[in-house]
Design brief:
By secondary structure, the chain is α/β, with parallel strands linked by helices. It folds into 2 domains: about 220 residues, 3-Layer(aba) Sandwich (Rossmann fold); about 90 residues, no CATH class. The chain is about 45% helix and about 10% strand. Strands 6-5-4-1-2-3-7-8 form an 8-stranded mixed sheet, sandwiched between helices. The longest helix has 17 residues. The two termini are about 35 Å apart.
């Protein structure tokens, strides 16, 4: 089994999932269970909970690219935000790092995976995070399936989470890491106001991708003086499609015609290296953690958590060379 130096958790996904399933009281227990599992089962030295900006700053990083980005998203409930605040207070006592940026949790995870010592383990069900998988970065994908209606609650067991590596990513997710970038750009995302190509959803995007595996990069990363893709590239894409997937020829023409929308999608979908603010674990937090748990009627968790807390000299530090800011 690979022992990972750093595990980065998609904290917004983890907390939203716990809140929607069981309410605000479930956030801490869910985070503890995941923290313990990462330390115990995957040999993780540093667990980082990746957060994103809130309030007026939420989505601001990509709204500089497109003013419409996430413009229709409704603000989360106040009780959820308050529960997140409590969790953020408790995580350093638990032994975890926390990281923020003015971008999103995706960019925080990408920056950590590119600039902190590895090997890295990422935890998220977000397909965007599949883009990051490589030889030194693996993805643990939680299963989000729902219990079938014809199966009783006491008889159903949620499938195990999937460890995605470069060797099994196609089997586990259906696409390569680079393929996810291509498909996400073409399919877009109406909930986030990412345009994609007209009338192209996930299934059709995968058909186009099979025909031309690097179509998005070919069209968006090269252009002539008019901003259009060079005719030679368009000709090559048409020829490749005719040879591999003739049924997708119409959609290749759509991609060429809608290259501006595709270029915008690529700018919104791609991850960015960003400046991070990191809160390290609290070395003197054990007594405060016990008091905090007792105050929330969670005394039974303390022994389980305390066994996993590192010794005073084993906490580790955020790498100084990563451009990280530690203001605490």
């Amino acid at each position: 089994m690979t022992e990972y130096r750093t595990a980065t958790v998609d904290a917004p996904f983890l907390t939203r999932r716990a809140y929607e399933a069981s309410g605000p009281g479930a956030l801490f227990g869910t985070a503890v269970a995941l923290y313990c599992r990462l330390v115990r089962d995957f040999g993780v030295s540093q667990v980082v909970f990746a957060w994103e900006a809130r309030g007026v700053m939420k989505g601001e990083f990509r709204r500089r690219i497109s003013a419409d980005y996430k413009s229709r998203r409704q603000p989360p409930p106040q009780e959820y935000l308050e529960a997140c605040d409590e969790l953020q207070h408790a995580l350093p006592l638990l032994g975890a790092f926390q990281a923020w940026s003015d971008a999103e949790a995706d960019d925080v995870a990408y920056t950590i995976s590119r600039t902190w010592p590895g090997p890295h383990l990422l935890w998220s069900a977000d397909h965007d995070w599949a883009q990051f998988v490589n030889a030194g970065v693996h993805l643990l994908r939680p299963d989000c399936s729902q219990r079938p209606r014809d199966v009783a609650p006491d008889e159903w067991r949620r499938p195990r989470d999937t460890l995605v590596t470069p060797e099994n990513i196609v089997e586990a997710t259906g696409l390569t890491a680079a393929g996810w970038f291509e498909v996400l750009c073409m399919a877009g995302d109406p909930t986030d106001d990412i345009p994609g190509l007209p009338r192209v959803g996930r299934v059709r995007a995968e058909v186009i991708h099979r025909a031309c595996p690097t179509l998005v990069r070919d069209l968006t990363q090269t252009h002539d003086a008019t901003g259009e893709p060079p005719e030679a590239i368009c000709r090559d894409l048409r020829a490749l499609c005719a040879a591999t997937e003739p049924a997708a020829a119409t959609w290749v023409e759509v991609a060429i015609r809608e290259v501006d929308a595709l270029r915008l999608s690529a700018e919104l979908v791609q991850p960015y290296l960003v400046d991070l603010t990191v809160e390290p674990p609290r070395e003197d937090g054990l007594d405060e953690l016990r008091d905090w748990l007792e105050g929330h009627n969670l005394e039974a968790m303390f022994e389980q958590v305390a066994r996993l807390l590192p010794e005073d000299d084993d906490w580790g530090e955020a790498p100084a060379e990563s451009g990280v800011t530690v203001p605490f």
